[in-house]
């Protein structure tokens, strides 16, 4: 048979799983999977929703042995599962939680592993077998399936293992679900094909990750995302040293990579890939900006897109990212193609999200913007809507019914109009500015709501300043900024200097403007005075607390 | 729940501490929630408010900074902590160090 074994690299009695400080050997997995395989449809489909990674592994192994295809949906929502059952008739639902049963599908609860016979013979799986289907959902529309043959999965796992200093007998702890391509490759395929064990849990919060790491044997690898890593660094949780950290799903800033390496005293590898392609390239972000492709994979640019081919890819794949190629195996990641956003590993289209917002009754105009600079653990969408007579809660209630929660705008800002240019377009900068004028521009969480003010048409200072061409003197503006500081932070905070101020445009009588304040340090406040479409002045104030 | 009057604990009305926590959640998640309108007994995550796992991370970080202890959600007992504003408030009240 033209195929590859289910698992390789394991000595007799070696662990493939760790759960509650107990070891599960690969022999136990194979014998239980063989018993379970007898109950699964041959040439059929198994929806694997198991949350415990070892239960997932059992279901996946059994499906392979039965020559069934595992369906790995991104969402556990009942309607998603029902639709999947309709598209793939005869699907069996493998779960480990009773509340996931679905009346339209035959369900098998595999939280209790079936007792198997005395096997210790590793099954061989044909290369051409369609081992898994993963889905890209975006924010709307029908999920698109991506076929993973056993050959492509085995090749990708071998290429990843060849790249990393991962020794057989290591344990991997995943903070990403097994149903996500990144989690599936690193915490299911990689251990199976490299003689490593995987931890059962899927910790999310920093304290959980720390506790899980403490409970596992060394050498230990953490499989996470920038989101988890940023939270761990921010929380300052004490963490045991590990042998390595793997990060993917979003670009990892260099300073975060450095903080992670210091905290875990281990090398951090960033993996570049996608659901369509699986892992394509890796880099050590503390050492280089350049990604190097895995094994035989090559990249080429053509008509504005990058195409990957070779290696474990069964056919050339067009990538959704902007890559600056140095040569056919080395590149720098520049970002996603304009319209795409990725939040919590889920990909969405700004245009599709905006269309969804535009369909909410009462919304006349709208825009969606990805805000990446506010110091939260993950970038979030900010939405603007022109919806006279509506309040944000009504619109959000509407969106909640239709969008994955990760794509809900945080926040939704109601405006009188959008700062469109003459061509009707909205620039990123104008949206950033619009958010700032509504109190969502600064990195600190106490950034206050901006108040719109109007220059009084008959302000006595104005006509005399430049006769015939009245404008608002800068010193008057600074006085207003000082008032705003007093209003926001109370009388105990006083302005003791203006180390930096730029006046960029004149402000004329009857114009409306607003002041944004952002306390960037104990003794510094950044300020900005803006009209709806231009910055009038900005700079920094030195402040001190009065005793 | 310390020394709060029993009706604040049993009714659907928020206690003072639940309101404080609701404000923290609204600020941490940046969702347009009206903090005083969050039903203290209703689910916080999933359906209802539409909070997701990233929000849970944000809330956990904000709680550890404000109240000086780490939240966990990784077993059945811990999951009930996040089930509602009321449960979360009671849990924090019991474990806070500041």
How is this structure best described in words?
The complex is a heterodimer of chains A (547) and B (98). Chain A is built from 13 helices and 32 strands. The model of chain A is unreliable at 442-449 (pLDDT under 50). Chain B is an all-alpha fold. Chain B has a single domain, classed as Non-ribosomal Peptide Synthetase Peptidyl Carrier Protein, Chain A (Orthogonal Bundle). Helices cover 52% and strands 0% of the residues of chain B. Chain B contains five helices and no strands. In chain B, α2 (16-29) crosses α3 (53-67). Residues 4-10 of chain B have low confidence and may be disordered. Chain A binds chain B through residues 201, 203-208, 211-212, 227-228, 231, 234-235, 237, 343-344, 376-378, 380, 392-393, 396, 400, 405-406, 408, 410-412, 440, 445, and chain B through 27-32, 34, 46, 50-58, 60-61, 64, 70-74.
Number of strands of chain A: 32
- Class from helix and strand fractions of chain B: mainly alpha
Q: Provide the domain count of chain B.
A: 1
| Relative helix content of chain B | 40-55%
Overall spatial form of chain A? elongated
Number of helices of chain B: 5
Q: Output the CATH topology of the domain at 338-439 in chain A.
A: GMP Synthetase, Chain A, domain 3
Q: So, CATH architecture of chain B?
A: Orthogonal Bundle
CATH H-level superfamily of chain B: ACP-like
The average pLDDT score of chain B comes to: 79
CATH homology superfamily of the domain at 338-439 in chain A: ANL, C-terminal domain
Rounded to the nearest angstrom, the radius of gyration of chain B is 12 Å
Compute the separation of the termini of chain B in Å. Answer: 15 Å
């Amino acid at each position: 048979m033209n195929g590859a074994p289910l698992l390789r690299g394991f000595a007799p009695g070696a662990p493939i799983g760790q759960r509650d400080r107990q070891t599960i050997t690969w022999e136990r997995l194979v014998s239980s999977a063989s018993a379970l395989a007898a109950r699964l449809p041959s040439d059929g489909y198994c929806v694997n929703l198991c949350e415990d990674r070892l239960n997932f592994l059992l279901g996946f192994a059994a499906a392979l042995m039965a020559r069934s295809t595992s369906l790995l949906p991104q969402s556990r929502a009942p309607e998603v599962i029902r639709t999947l059952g309709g598209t793939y008739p005869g699907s069996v639902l493998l779960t480990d939680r009773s509340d996931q049963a679905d009346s339209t599908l035959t369900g098998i609860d595999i939280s209790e592993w079936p007792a198997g016979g005395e096997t210790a013979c590793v099954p061989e799986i044909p290369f051409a077998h369609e081992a898994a289907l993963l889905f890209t959902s975006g924010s709307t529309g029908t999920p698109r399936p991506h076929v993973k043959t056993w050959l492509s999965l085995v090749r990708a796992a071998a290429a990843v293992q060849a790249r990393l200093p991962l020794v057989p007998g290591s344990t991997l702890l995943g903070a990403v679900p097994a149903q996500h391509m990144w989690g599936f490759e690193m915490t299911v395929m990689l251990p199976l094909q490299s003689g490593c064990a995987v931890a059962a849990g899927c910790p999310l919060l920093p304290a959980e990750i720390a506790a899980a790491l403490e409970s596992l044997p060394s050498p230990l690898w953490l499989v996470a995302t920038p989101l988890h890593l940023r939270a761990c660094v921010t929380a300052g949780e004490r963490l045991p040293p590990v042998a390595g950290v793997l990060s993917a799903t979003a670009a990892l800033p260099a300073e975060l990579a450095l903080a992670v390496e210091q905290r875990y005293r281990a090398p951090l590898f960033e993996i570049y890939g996608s659901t369509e392609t699986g892992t394509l390239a890796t880099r050590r972000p503390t050492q280089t900006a350049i990604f190097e492709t895995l094994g035989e994979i090559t990249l080429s640019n053509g008509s504005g897109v990058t195409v990957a081919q070779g290696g474990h890819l069964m056919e050339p794949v067009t990538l959704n990212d902007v890559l600056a190629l140095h040569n056919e195996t080395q590149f720098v990641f520049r970002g996603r193609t304009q319209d795409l956003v990725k939040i919590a590993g889920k990909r969405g289209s700004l245009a599709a999200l905006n269309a969804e917002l535009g369909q909410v009754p009462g919304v006349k105009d709208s825009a969606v913007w990805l805000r990446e600079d506010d110091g939260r653990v993950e970038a979030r969408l900010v939405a603007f809507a022109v919806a006279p007579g509506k309040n944000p809660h009504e619109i959000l209630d509407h969106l909640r019914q239709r969008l994955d929660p990760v794509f809900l705008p945080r926040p939704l800002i109601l405006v009188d109009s959008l700062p469109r240019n003459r061509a009707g377009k909205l620039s990123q900068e104008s949206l950033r500015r619009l958010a700032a004028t509504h109190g969502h521009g600064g990195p600190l969480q106490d950034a206050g709501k901006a108040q719109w003010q109007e220059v009084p048409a008959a302000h006595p200072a104005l006509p005399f300043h430049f006769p015939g061409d009245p404008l608002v003197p800068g010193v008057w503006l600074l006085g207003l900024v000082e008032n705003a500081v007093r209003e926001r932070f109370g009388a105990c905070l006083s302005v003791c200097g203006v180390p930096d101020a730029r006046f960029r445009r004149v402000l004329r009588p009857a114009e409306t403007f607003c002041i944004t304040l952002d306390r960037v340090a104990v003794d510094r406040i950044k300020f900005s005075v803006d009209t709806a479409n231009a910055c009038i002045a900005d700079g920094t104030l030195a402040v001190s607390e009065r005793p | 729940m310390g020394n709060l009057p029993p009706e604040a604990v049993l009714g659907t009305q928020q206690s003072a501490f639940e309101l404080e926590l609701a404000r923290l959640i609204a600020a941490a998640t940046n969702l347009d929630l009206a903090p005083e309108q969050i039903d203290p007994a209703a689910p916080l995550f999933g359906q209802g408010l539409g909070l997701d796992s990233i929000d849970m991370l944000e809330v956990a970080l904000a709680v550890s900074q404000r109240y000086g202890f780490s939240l966990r959600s990784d077993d059945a007992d811990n999951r009930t902590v996040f089930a509602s504003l009321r449960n979360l408030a009671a849990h924090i009240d019991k474990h806070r160090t500041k």
